[in-house]
Amino acid sequence: MAATFYGLMARFDTAPEIYHAAQQVRDAGYKNWDCITPFPVHGLDGAMGLGRSNVPKFSLVGGLTGFTTGMSMIWFTGAFDYPLIVGGKPYFSPLFAFPISYELTILFTAFATIAGMFILNWLPQHYHPVLKSKEILRGLDDAFYVVIEARDPKFDLNRAKALLSHAGAKEISELEA
Amino acid sequence: MAHAHTDHPAPAILAEVKPVAFPRATLVENNRSFSWVTEKICGIIEGPTPRWWWIMFAVSAFLASFTVAGIIYLVSTGVGVWGHANPVNWAWDIVNFVFWIGIGHAGTLISAILCLLRQKWRTSINRAAEAMTIFAVVCAGIFPVFHVGRVWFAVLPGYLFPFPNANAIWPNFRSPLEWDVFAVSTYGTVSVLFWYIGLIPDLAILRDRFYRSGDKIRSALYGFFAMGWRGSNRHWSNYEMAYLVLAGISTPLVLSVHTIVSFDFAVSLLPGWHTTIFPPYFVAGAIFSGFGMVLTLMLPLRAVFRLEDLITQYHIDCMCKIILATGTIVGYAYGMEFFIAWYGSNPYEGFAFINRAFGHYAWAYWIMITCNVVTPQFFWFKSIRRNIGLVWILSIFVNVGMWFERFVIIVTSLARDFLPSSWGYYSPSAVEIFTFFGTFGVFGVLFLLFIRFLPIMPMAEIKAVMPQADAHGGHDKH
User: Fold this and answer.
1) What architecture (CATH level 2) is domain A5-51+127-176?
2) Which of A5, B140, B210, B428 is deepest in the core (most CB within 10 A)?
3) Looking at the partner chain, which of A54, A55, A78 has a beta carbon nearest the beta carbon of B170?
4) ipTM exceeding 0.90?
5) Taking a contact as any Cβ pair under 8 Å apart, which residues of chain B between 156 and 175 contact chain A?
6) Cβ neighbours of residue B329 under 8 Å, at least 6 residues apart?
7) Does domain B13-467 have CATH number 3.90.980.10?
8) Across the interface, do B227 and A107 touch by the CB < 8 Å criterion?
9) Considering only CB atoms, which chain B residues are within 8 Å of A142?
10) DSSP strand pairing (A171-176 vs A144-149)
């Protein structure tokens, strides 16, 4: 079976190079493209034109759920399901329920944050053209890559190659899907 | 700075005061490259198992068997095999629990609080410190779980976790001990999640390296947990945000956990326990003991794996200074407890503190004072902070001192309570001693497995704080 063409992968050797290359690809108007970096390069989100991450929205929902769970669980067990007077105190008070609700807020926030990160990143995804490439070994070690996908509406093989080499790519390889 | 732009005229005051251009400490010495970091850290896992590792592993496993044997004996016989007896019904079990939980706090401090404070030196020690946290929580958990004797009676009818059962019994949510159940289990869970998130990019490197070297089985194992990470910057963007949120919630978490642990005592009415200073004092003590343990673990690792370029003298200085600061806070708290006992004019409270320092357990009190108040003061001196062997020995003293702190607080107050007719003297039984020392074996086994199979330092994070990582090439930020 003939391999389908996925896109171009261009290598850059330093952080400033990938930063400026990303700015140029962004300004050329591409949408389906990415940078592969061994570590989060400071400022690259802006150079790629990425907005603020949506992970905190998941965190907020998780935190509110956790707090509500704590409060309602303690109310349910102590004041509704089996009302029992302990130490002459009221069946329910948000004060003594607070420490546990606080811990559950944190617990649920943590799970929601991590779930949010995985969902937004569409992970786990054990198969990907970039992972199939030999370049990934350096992409996680010390080199920086720009990947432009062929499915991008603006994609034209020669123009994309020209753009990448103009941006200073050291080596451009073709990725198969 | 030297590269000041001419289009931003410097304030006139600068000409007068001549501020010194304060040099930033280098976090990775000898101008190492990115791939040097990868080779160094991955090389530890990929290389052959060193002989010292097997020796240490055998010793740790042998030591861990003490805990296993002690627990089997306890469960099959009854809690009477421990030395607890009226009036000291809480002793080594809770001492050991608080000791181990406290150790864990430094890991979270390094990974969360120092992350929020942008202390970049945290990067090379945070992975091992977080591992230490998790293993310390495991060791801590052994004691509250098994001090009830027949464990299944505590777990199944729902005394610990709210668990629907035939007797319709729900836990007492007013009890700080119940808060502890939630605090510690949340702490353990969140620590594991935080640690795992940090590991993902590094596991991806190992996946690809093992794949290229033909080790398909190890590649698949690391790859399964790497979740298909490919270093995409669109992923990094969400990853960084998730990491920041986790750091943001772990900070109140770590402070709340030891606060709640201190509530176990502070909410009671016993003289010496019933004090409002406990939460901050316990948190400071926890961080103090945790950094002691971080140094105890990291200094040998640094020497044996030749990691001097990654854990520099600057890192050691920083840790010593945190020990100095928190140790001094602890020393202040010891003094303040005495002051309040006198100032509060409560005869029972006053007696509790006089008894601590000069009663039957005075030996434990003075060990505590020596280790926790005197030891950290050595770290004022640069020459001592630069003497690695001495720093290591002092870090052991910190660990010992913090164990004695919990012993002094818990046992002295219980042994001499309100009624002289019920006074007693507590000594641990052999089973308790073996169970406790065995937990160091449990910890050792887990930590040795960690350094053998997982990257002991976060490669991606270290690379991100190296000078080459700056996208603006070291020039002024735009």
Assistant:
1) 2-Layer Sandwich (3.30)
2) B140
3) A78
4) yes
5) 162, 168-174
6) B280, B281, B284, B288
7) no
8) no
9) 33-35, 38, 463
10) unpaired
